[in-house]
């Protein structure tokens, strides 16, 4: 039993160190960019030795991939939570999900900077592309399913669930970019109004401006 307690404590400490290093990596990427971030930078930001970084991740490539995976997993967890805690209708759930994308915990300049840094590398990094594609596909599938329900319920014509998902993704990415490059003028409530204006235009029976 004593050995088990020690192993549990050791595992918890290991996970704490890994998370500490991932958080430090995000801060460094947001501040310096991906290519300029070194393992030494991450170690310094985390207040740990570079040897600890090497022990946990072996290489910068591994550390970056795990950082992106953490971001994707964190987003998916909040996405699922918002979906489950929303109202019962498809419109309730769709609204909850677009609101999520503008929450400070998601639409955060540091996190957005890191997302854009990774998106800029997906063409040359298959592992990044795989992680991002899985996240995007999960998002698109969920949004399309909700849009399908709304279209059927409202007997809407001239719009497809696929186009709704594509437009919402494009709008959200654009709003995240505005948050990143124009923080002084970016206003979350106006961003939400823009999304609702789009939805009210195509689904007037389910959304109001």
State the main characteristics:
mainly alpha, Arc Repressor Mutant, subunit A, Tetracycline Repressor, domain 2, 77% helix
Describe this structure in words.
With 209 residues, this protein is mainly α. It folds into 2 domains: 1-58, Arc Repressor Mutant, subunit A (Orthogonal Bundle); 59-209, Tetracycline Repressor, domain 2 (Orthogonal Bundle), CATH 1.10.357.10. It has helices at residues 2-32, 39-46, 50-57, 60-85, 90-100, 109-119, 126-154, 161-181, 188-202. Helix 1 (2-32) crosses helix 2 (39-46), helix 1 crosses helix 4 (60-85) and helix 2 packs across helix 3. The longest helix is centred in the N-terminal third of the chain and has 31 residues, at 2-32. The mean pLDDT is 93.
Low-confidence stretches: none
Mean pLDDT: 93
Rg over CA atoms: 20 Å
CATH topology of the largest domain: Tetracycline Repressor, domain 2
> What can be said about the biggest beta sheet?
none
Shape, per Cα inertia axes: elongated
β-strand percent reads under 5%
Summarize the structure.
Helices cover 77% and strands 0% of the residues. It has helices spanning 2-32, 39-46, 50-57, 60-85, 90-100, 109-119, 126-154, 161-181, 188-202.
What is the secondary structure topology, with strand pairs?
Blueprint: H1 2-32, H2 39-46, H3 50-57, H4 60-85, H5 90-100, H6 109-119, H7 126-154, H8 161-181, H9 188-202
Helix pairs in contact: 1-2, 1-3, 1-4, 1-6, 2-3, 3-4, 4-5, 4-7, 5-7, 6-8, 7-8
């Amino acid at each position: 039993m004593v050995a088990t307690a020690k192993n549990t404590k050791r595992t918890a400490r290991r996970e704490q160190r890994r998370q500490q290093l991932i958080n430090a990596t995000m801060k460094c990427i947001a501040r310096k960019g991906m290519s300029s971030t070194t393992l030494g930078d991450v170690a310094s930001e985390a207040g740990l030795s570079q040897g600890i970084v090497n022990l946990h991740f072996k290489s910068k490539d591994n550390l970056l991939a795990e950082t992106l995976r953490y971001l994707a997993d964190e987003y998916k967890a909040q996405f699922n939570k918002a979906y489950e805690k929303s109202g019962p209708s498809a419109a309730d759930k769709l609204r909850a999900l677009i609101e999520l994308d503008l929450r400070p915990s998601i639409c955060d300049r540091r996190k957005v900077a890191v997302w854009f840094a990774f998106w800029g590398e997906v063409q040359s990094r298959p592992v990044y592309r795989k992680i991002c594609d899985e996240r995007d596909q999960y998002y698109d599938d969920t949004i399309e399913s909700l849009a399908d329900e709304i279209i059927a319920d409202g007997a809407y014509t001239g719009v497809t669930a696929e186009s709704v998902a594509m437009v919402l993704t494009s709008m959200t990415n654009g709003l995240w970019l505005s948050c990143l490059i124009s923080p002084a003028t970016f206003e979350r409530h106006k961003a939400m109004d823009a999304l609702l204006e789009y939805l009210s235009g195509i689904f007037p029976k389910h959304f109001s401006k």
